Amino acid sequence: MNNYICVTCGVQYAESEEPPEHCLICEDERQYIGPNGQQWTTLAELRQGHRNLIQPQEPGLIGIGSDPAIAIGQRALLVQQAAGNVLWDCISLLDEATIRAVKGLGGIAAIAISHPHFYSSMVEWARAFGAPIYLHADDRQWVMRPDPAIVFWQGEQRTLAGGLTLARCGGHFAGGTVLHWAGGAGGRGALLSGDTIQVVSDRRYVSFM
Ligand SMILES: [Zn+2]
Ligand SMILES: [Zn+2]
Fold it and tell me: How confident is the model at residue 26 (pLDDT cuts 50, 70, 90)?
């Protein structure tokens, strides 16, 4: 039995003997299937050829991404705070080196994810750190590996510990969410926005999906 991971979107599926027939997330019009058709991998395989890079972005904010990139190049952000670190968005690769490094940064008290393109191996991360996963209930149908760690929240906002607020924006996905970090950017506040709100190249504007 294996928890297969879709090569194109990086989402891990519930345990099965054979790889699933379809990736529902890639067959959805907001993703795509590569020219070579549906392909699957596993966490064990990903650990062979990839590692995670842990890169500070600003005080209290650390980026975690895989090298070489996996799937659509997802990156997670670890918000460090006294009330407990929050992992914003998630990635497919989790290995011993990453667990050690993140524990050294204070671990993960909670995981929150913007939308299904970042569901990745969220259950692996939740189990490794004993953390709940906050997902908006309107995207429940896109969870491919159900788990008791998942907390479906409803409505427009949900407060997390330490001045963090999840806000549902919709758009890209009905439950598409951003994370407001009041203490970010030196106290001016920061919005961690997945790809729901994107800063355009000249950095003077944002665009909305
Ligand atoms: Zn997929
Ligand atoms: Zn997306």
Answer: very high
Q: Per the structure block, which two tokens stand in for 151?
A: 């907390």
- Look at residue 96 and give its three-state secondary structure: helix
Cα separation, 45 vs 165, whole angstroms: 36
Please determine, for residue 163, whether its predicted confidence score (pLDDT) is greater than 90: no
Q: Which residues, listed in sequence order, are joined to residue 167 by a DSSP beta bridge? A: 157, 178
Peptide linkage before 68 cis (omega within 30 of 0)? yes
Taking the centre of ligand 1 as the mean of its atom positions, its distance from the CA of residue 24, in whole angstroms, is 7
| Token digits of residue 117 | 């393109």
Provide, for the chain, the percentages of residues in helix, strand and coil under a 3-state DSSP scheme, each rounded to the nearest 5. 20, 30, 50
CATH numeric code, 5-208:
3.60.15
Residues with CB under 5 A from ligand 1 (ion): 6, 8-9, 23, 25-26
Q: Helices in the chain by DSSP H: which ranges?
A: 24-27, 43-49, 96-104, 122-129
Whether pLDDT at 12 is above 90: yes
pLDDT of residue 16: 97
Output the pLDDT for position 43. Answer: 98
Measure the CA–CA gap between 147 and 149, rounded to whole angstroms.
5
Q: How far is the CA of 92 from the centre of ligand 2 (A)?
A: 15
CB 105 within 8 A of CB 97: no
Write down how long the chain is: 209
pLDDT of 194 > 90? The answer is no
